[in-house]
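#onboarding

Welcome to the new folks! Below is a worked example of what a typical request in this channel looks like: someone posts a single protein sequence, and someone else replies with the predicted structure as tokens. Don't worry about understanding the tokens yet, we'll cover that in week two.

Example request:
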Amino acid sequence: MVFWHPKGWTLYRTLEAYICRRLDADGYHEVKTPQILDRGLWERSGHWEKFGHAMFVCETAEGETLAVKPMNCPGHVQIFNVGQKSYRDLPLRMAEFGACHRYEPSGALHGIMRVRAFTQDDGHIFCREDQIESETEKFVRLLYSVYADLDVTLHSVKLALRPDLRAGSDAVWDIAETKLERAARAAGVEVELLPGEGAFYGPKLEFHLRDAIGRTWQCGTLQLDFVLPERLDAEYVETDGSKQRPVMLHRAMFGSMERFIGILIENYAGAFPLWLAPVQVMVATITSDADDYAQAVARRLKAAGLRVEADVRNEKINYKVREHSLTKTPVIAVVGRREAEEGKVALRRFGSDGQTILTLDEAVALLANEALPPDLAGG
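Example response:
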């Protein structure tokens, strides 16, 4: 389980805020479900039988058996079931940054790539059967756009088919696998078949990314589910007044926030683009005469929304530049007596030997614009 230190947590929150905006723009309603739920719900959903070995369970003094949630889907069905739903309400897109706990074997744990406590950028789309293809295409477009914004390259897409331990009849699985493969191809995705690796309730598309040494990791996923709506009695009213079961699409773009951040760290080798960097600008003084001005520069940059620190230690500027370059800080704003007198800053970019002299107003405007996330900067 991860201990998030300040810089890591800043990266986490920046990524979370970005994806929240993307989901909001794409028509999702964000929700929050309980961390611990009664055994009865997990039995009805089928998770107790199929997934119980990986759940953290506790007994209360009153004899209740409770389980820490390993996934968010049963909770989302509970929210869907409140009030009567109509065909007009579908598709209904629900999202949650759900903290999940799974008892992964110790030998399977791997840094932040595979952990026992993780947060999913989870979402569930409740839709009609005739909306499966359009919702799949919509999700794939969003996922590709998000990956492009984050400059990560999709390695492969796999279609995971029915496992040996599963819920639902073979006839239902035949329909689900056919529909998901057809929907994927309609969305322009060429899939590699992966027999036996589907979720117990349905087939899934797996979007794999590659790490720094060439291993691939499943991150994004889209799962087609006819089973949970049946087990948990989800229904909507059709045009003819009849009650029908919705189809449930389980989807995530990052999958696990922890794993995706691990992939990003390796993808950028720690040299994050300005908008993602935990510290975006380091203001470094040449002499102590510039200390007050350095603090004023830092305040101006912070007021413009930038993440800024000031280095006013009694050290040579070359030492400071080298140290902050080793931490891959995107921008070092160097200030000395002359800069303080003239109201200017010397900007040094990571990976570049040169520097640019700007007025403080120019520097603030330039960096504030550069630090906008891709979705706010228009791409």
